[in-house]
Design brief:
single chain, transmembrane helix, alpha/beta, rod-shaped, 27-stranded parallel β-sheet, membrane, two-stranded parallel ribbon, 8 helices
Length: 498
């Protein structure tokens, strides 16, 4: 195996005319080289290998080439390291030919219909295009302006390719389009915008440390039963999840003789954001495949109302600063429950707090109070029996949790009516000359006396009622009246001030 450092030597190795390698450009077509091809410290303008068969590997070390084209070449491997190449084009290599580029600077990279592909420590000033993949793709410590992976070539019984991106920095956009992969892994990826369009994975999609400055879009992705997840990631722009589908809901591939379009409805496709930070999140789904986007220990600045059977699930210490309320109103418990069930998988304290904080931020204080009351009532209902009775009946039903004025006002009015009825039936407020229970004047006197007791207006009482029992009754009613009156007035003043 000889080391080649000039185009003249390369032309002689390929049995070309001696004068062919004296220029800066060299094209080799349809040649057979019976030994491995090693290019070391080669300098060239344009080097093209078309249908060249090499008995071994093609190795480039420390080469400076303006354009390198490898098309329909058969070799054990194509190895490029520590080189500087303007434009590298690799097309239509055999399935078992490995393409390995490491520690190399490029202006543009185009790989089409190749087998196992591995790039490590590659710096590309412009674009990286990988299409018609026929083997696994590994990208490590890659730096590029744009990165696009499109339309792998699925052939017969061959396994679908695996794609792995690790420590990849792309200044503009990463696009994965029209792919059916065995697995997709993103680890420490820094990019302006990430687009996953019509991507299907046989194993759950995993992303760790993904940082998107302008946004993340998932459109038409097909995932397996186990949930896909993004961990410890940050998306400063919008996250749009559209058309995420469970693999069971996708019809089988059509055959010309007997197309099989059977689908299974009801299987939900799940996507998890864990320990991440998101600027805004929007999800939509069709009727065939529901979508569940779980936020686990994740902070979201804005949450849009999902479209179709898409729902959000809050888990752990997730927080949502603002929820898009649209034209929703929250005047009663049914309004609250209906909206939350349309947005979230279940009515949880985190979901209630997210909606309440949104209402408070938009100065919709009355509806925010309704959400607070609904939240506290649900929390009280989940406790033990004594706490449930004290919370829902006393603090909620009687006192209104300090935000609903009608609860203490209604309790005070009912207490006054009950006291008036009791006084009238007992005869404590009737004179001997009154006509009995049907005397309206006596009934009115009992009502006025009950109001005086509860409202503490000090109109006094008949002389025959001035006993210790009457004093205890007066003190009890007066204390309750002060409590309910003060609470009602305080709630009303608070609403007016806000």
């Amino acid at each position: 195996m000889a080391t080649i450092s000039t185009l003249d030597a390369l032309a002689r190795a390929a049995d070309l005319d001696a004068s062919t390698g004296r220029e800066r450009d060299l094209t080799i077509r349809q040649r057979d080289i019976d030994e491995p091809l090693v290019l070391d410290s080669l300098t060239a303008g344009r080097l093209a290998l078309h249908r060249v068969n090499v008995a071994g590997a093609v190795t480039l070390r420390s080469c400076v080439i303006e354009e390198l084209v490898v098309d329909h070449c058969a070799a054990d491997a194509l190895l490029v390291s520590n080189s500087r190449i303007g434009r590298l084009v690799v097309r239509n290599t055999p399935r078992n030919t490995e393409v390995d580029v490491s520690e190399t600077a490029l202006e543009a990279l185009d790989v089409h219909s190749c087998g196992p592909t591995r790039f490590e420590g590659v710096r590309v000033s412009d674009s990286v295009q990988i299409s018609a993949m026929r083997g696994p793709v590994q990208l490590r410590r890659l730096r590029a302006a744009t990165l696009a992976l499109r339309s792998q070539a699925a052939v017969g019984r061959q396994r679908r390719p695996q794609v792995s991106l690790e420590n990849v920095h792309v200044t503009e956009t990463i696009t994965l389009d029209d792919l059916w992969l065995a697995s997709l892994t993103l680890d420490e990826v820094d990019v302006a915008a990430l687009l996953l369009r019509r991507v299907r994975v046989d194993e759950p999609f995993r992303g760790t440390g993904v940082r998107c400055r302008d946004g993340l879009r998932i459109n038409g992705m097909v995932v397996p039963a186990e949930a896909s997840a993004l961990l410890d990631s940050e998306v400063r722009g919008p996250v749009v999840v559209r058309g995420l589908r469970h693999a069971q809901t996708v019809p089988a591939q059509r055959r010309q003789a007997a197309p099989d379009t059977t689908t299974v409805t009801g299987a939900a496709a799940e996507l998890i954001f864990r320990s991440s930070s998101i600027s805004s999140l929007a999800a939509s789904a069709d009727e065939v495949s529901p979508v569940v986007v779980e936020l686990a220990d994740t902070s979201v600045r804005a949450l849009a109302v999902p479209i179709g059977p898409a729902r959000y699930r809050l888990a752990g210490t997730s927080s949502v600063q603002e929820v898009d309320l649209g034209d929703a109103v929250f005047r009663n418990d049914e309004h609250v429950t209906g909206f939350l069930e349309r947005v979230f998988t279940r009515v949880s304290p985190g979901a209630l707090e997210a909606v309440r904080s949104t209402l408070t931020g938009r100065r919709r204080m009355s509806e925010g109070d309704q959400l607070y009351y609904f939240t506290r009532q649900r929390e009280a209902a989940e406790g033990p029996l004594l706490r449930r009775l004290a919370g829902r009946a006393l603090l909620g039903g009687v006192l209104g949790w300090g935000v609903r004025a009608r609860n203490p006002a209604r309790t005070l009015g009912g207490a006054m009516l009950f006291t008036a009825v009791a006084l009238h039936l007992s005869g404590a407020a009737r004179d001997p000359q009154d006509g009995g229970l049907l005397d309206l004047v006596a009934a009115g006197r009992a009502l006025v006396l009950a109001c005086a007791l509860w409202l503490n207006v000090g109109v006094g009482a008949p002389s025959e009622l001035k006993t210790h029992a009457w004093t205890a009754l007066a003190v009890g009613c007066t204390g309750g009246g002060l409590l309910f009156t003060t609470l009602t007035v305080g709630i009303v003043i608070r609403k007016l001030v806000r």
